[in-house]
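FORM 12-B: Structure-to-Sequence Request
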């Protein structure tokens, strides 16, 4: 039995173990054998074998010719559906922010240790074209969008001080990390209570802007998108 907010929470053990299997496979670069998974979970191999067989039959894991297990295509379908829902909700908000503020608005989602761009919307009268193309990725700690996602999560030992600062502020801000001479300012979007995405603005660093106002804008934008997804 786990606890949440000081209250006991009933856990379905088999489901919990199945999710632990998926998490173990997600952390493995080259897949895992059933024995590897059993060792990571601290349970008997026969239990893991049954879990893997069930997950394999549902497409949540795949099995390579060498016998090692990897994440399956069903998870990709689920992740794509989450992304599509996020784009449907966030698209109009991004377009409105871009036109209203005269800045490029961007949407990123976490994919493992990376932030992946889902959308980049420029104002129709954009004087500058920012090279953030959908599908491009960067390590989460590198720039504002990824930092915002990390800042929306609980602190971890040894994290970058920039992440702690972003968590305290409610937004992240970096300059020339992805595009030279441009500043990114981003806030986390919480999906089902977890920070898995971020919305941001891309600002020419040489221009004078009210960054306090822009920070309020991205925080409010992230909050609207997050609430619309619930």
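FORM 12-B RESPONSE
SEQUENCE OUT:
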């Amino acid at each position: 039995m786990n606890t949440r907010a000081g209250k006991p929470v009933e856990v379905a053990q088999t489901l919990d173990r199945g999710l632990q299997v998926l998490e173990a496979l997600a952390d493995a670069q080259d897949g895992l054998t059933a024995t590897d998974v059993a060792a990571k979970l601290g349970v008997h191999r026969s239990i893991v074998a049954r879990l893997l067989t069930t997950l394999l039959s549902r497409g949540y894991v795949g099995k390579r010719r060498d016998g090692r297990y990897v994440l399956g295509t069903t998870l990709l379908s689920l992740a794509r559906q989450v992304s599509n829902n996020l784009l449907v909700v966030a698209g109009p908000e991004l377009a409105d922010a871009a036109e209203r503020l005269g800045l490029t608005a961007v949407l990123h989602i976490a994919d493992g240790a990376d932030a992946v761009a889902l959308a980049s919307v420029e104002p129709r009268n954009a004087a500058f074209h920012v090279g953030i193309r959908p599908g491009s990725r960067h390590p989460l700690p590198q720039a504002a969008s990824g930092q915002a996602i990390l800042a929306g999560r609980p602190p971890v030992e040894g994290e970058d001080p920039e992440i702690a600062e972003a968590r305290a502020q409610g937004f992240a801000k970096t300059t020339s990390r992805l595009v030279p001479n441009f500043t990114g300012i981003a806030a986390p979007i919480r999906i089902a209570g977890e920070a898995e995405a971020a919305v941001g603005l891309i600002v020419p660093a040489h221009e004078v802007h009210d960054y306090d106002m822009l920070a309020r804008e991205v925080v409010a934008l992230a909050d609207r998108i997050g609430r619309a997804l619930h």
